[in-house]
Amino acid sequence: MFIGRETELDFFEKRYAEEKGQLIVLYGRRRVGKTETLREFCKDKPHVFFSCTQTTDKIQLSKFSKQILREDIPARQYISEFADWEKAFRAILDLPYGNRKKLIVIDEFPYMCRGNKSIPSVLQNLWDTELKDRNVMIILCGSAMSFVEKELLAEKNPLYGRATGIYKMKEMGFYDAARFFPDYSERDKIVTYAVLGGIPHYLNQFSPKLSVEQNIKQNILTKGSVLYSEVEFLLHQELRETPIYNSIIEAVAFGSTRLNDISQKSLVDDTSKTSVYLKNLMELGIVKREFSVDVGIKEKANTNRGIYRLTDNFFRFWYAFGFANLSQLEDGDVEGVYKYFVEPALHEFTSFIFEDVCKEFVRELQKKNALPFHYAKMGRWSGKTTVRDKEKKNGLRVAETEIDLLAVSRDTKEYLVGECKFKKSPFNYSEYLDTTAKLTPLKEKAKFYYALFSESGFDEKVRTEAEKSEELYLFDLKTIVNLKNNI
C-alpha cells in the first residue's frame, strides 16, 4: 500500500493537467521514495518509465531504445535501436497516447549524463525547438543531489532555465510516518519515528504486527536484516574515506555538535577538513547545520557558527546503538545489546526527536490558522536570557539557556514559547515557571504566548493556570499524535 506523498502527487497532477509542455526535475536523497512516488503518479496514465543504470553510454542508449520501441510508434517497424540520443528523445513525440499527455520518466538521470555529457545539450535543443510547445511531460529524477544542484540546475548547464518545475523531495514528516503503524500507541509511534525517521524504505522494514522492541531486535540489530547493513551500504555507495565519515557521524550522534568538538572526537586534526566532510554529509541529507531561530544571514555564513545535527533519525539510532556495539552484534548477542544498551537509553533518545514532532505539530496548526498569530519563523532558540533564580523568591538572573521551540511574528511583536517534555512524569508547575521566565525583558514590547507539550500530561496547578490564562496552551501526547484526525 502506498502511503503519504499527497503534496508531491498533487504537484505532479497539476503539472500533468497543464496544456503546455512540462519539463520537471525531481531530486532528493536515496531511499526517500522518489521512484515509488513517480510510479504511483504514473498509474492509470499511458507512460514510459526508464530507469538508468551505471553503464556505458552505448548500452544505456540501447536499453532506452528498447523501452521506447515497445510502444506502438512508427520507428519500431524498421529499426531495433535508435542511432543517437537526439532521435531517441524525438521519438517521444510519436508515443501513441492520443489526446493524453506524452509522459516519460527518466529515473536516475545523472547516470545517463555521466555516460554522455552531451545529453543535457541534446535535450535542451529538442526542448527549445520541438517539445516545449507540445503535449509532453518529461520528468528527470535523480538521487545525486550535488550533481542536480551544481550541474543540472546550474547556470552553465544547457538545461538551466528550461525546467517548468523543480521539486526537492524530503523525508516524510512524523504524521505520514505514523500511518505505517496505525495500531501502535501514541508513544510507540513517536519512538518508532525517533528510530527510523521519515524514510519510507526504512519504515517498510518494520512490521506493524510486531512490537517496537521486536522490530528493533529483528529488523535492525540482527545481522543479515536490511537495516543492519544499510548505513554501511549507503556510505560506501556515496563516499570515499568511509572510516573518517564513520567517526564524524558517530561523534555527532553522541552529542558533539560544534565544529571543534566534532573534529576532536573524530580525531580529524584540521577543522577545515572536518568542515569539508560535514559539507559532503549535508549534501547527502545526513547532517544539517542548525542555528538559533534569531540568527541573521551574516552569522550563518560563518562556518564556525551553528551546531551540527544528524537529520536522519535512523543514522542517529544506528551510530548510538548499532555501530557502537558492532562486535557484540556480529557475535549474535542481539538480546544483550538491546537489554543493556538500547532499552535503558531509548526513552531519552526519543526525547530529542519529540521536539521535532512538536515543531511539526505547530506547523500544522499554522496551516489551519489555529495559532494565536501567524509566525514568520520558528525553531530552536539558544543564548543568554533571564532564567528563574530558585534561591530567591520570584527572582531572575541572566544565564545561557535554550528554548525548545520559539515562533516569532514578522513584526517581532508576538512570540510563542514552546517547551517539550518527553518524560514519564507530568509537566509540573515549577517547569512552567521556568518556561515563562525566559525572555522576560522582551515582554515590555511584545505579546507572549506559551505552548507546553508533554508525554505524560500536566500537574493540577498547570492545568488550573491554563484554565485561567488565554495565553497558555497545553498539548498532551494524544492531542499531538492524533492532530490530523482532529482538524
Commentary on this structure:
- By secondary structure, this protein is an alpha/beta fold.
- The chain has helices spanning 6-17, 34-42, 57-69, 85-90, 109-115, 119-131, 145-152, 174-178, 186-196, 200-203, 212-221, 230-238, 242-253, 259-265, 271-283, 297-300, 313-322, 326-330, 334-367, 429-437, 460-468, 477-481, 483-486, and strands spanning 22-27, 47-51, 102-107, 136-142, 165-168, 287-290, 307-310, 375-389, 395-409, 414-421, 447-454, 472-476.
- A 5-stranded parallel sheet has the order 2-3-4-1-5, with helices on both faces. The chain has a 5-stranded mixed sheet with strand order 8-9-10-11-12.
- Helix 1 (6-17) crosses helix 2 and helix 17 (313-322) packs antiparallel against helix 19 (334-367).
- The chain is globular and about 90 Å long.
- The mean pLDDT is 93.
* Poorly predicted runs of 5 or more residues: none
The number of helical segments is: 23
* CA-based shape: globular
**Which class of secondary structure composition applies to the elements?**
alpha/beta
Look at the structure and give the mean pLDDT.
93
Distance between the termini: 24 Å
The biggest beta sheet is recorded as: 5 strands, parallel
- Identify the strand order in the major beta sheet: 2-3-4-1-5
What is the total tally of β strands? 12
Q: How large is the share of residues in beta strands? A: 15-25%
Reconstruct the topology from this structure.
Blueprint: H1 6-17, E1 22-27, H2 34-42, E2 47-51, H3 57-69, H4 85-90, E3 102-107, H5 109-115, H6 119-131, E4 136-142, H7 145-152, E5 165-168, H8 174-178, H9 186-196, H10 200-203, H11 212-221, H12 230-238, H13 242-253, H14 259-265, H15 271-283, E6 287-290, H16 297-300, E7 307-310, H17 313-322, H18 326-330, H19 334-367, E8 375-389, E9 395-409, E10 414-421, H20 429-437, E11 447-454, H21 460-468, E12 472-476, H22 477-481, H23 483-486
Parallel strand pairs: 1-4, 1-5, 2-3, 3-4, 10-11, 11-12
Antiparallel strand pairs: 6-7, 8-9, 9-10
Helix pairs in contact: 1-2, 9-17, 9-19, 11-19, 13-14, 13-17, 17-19
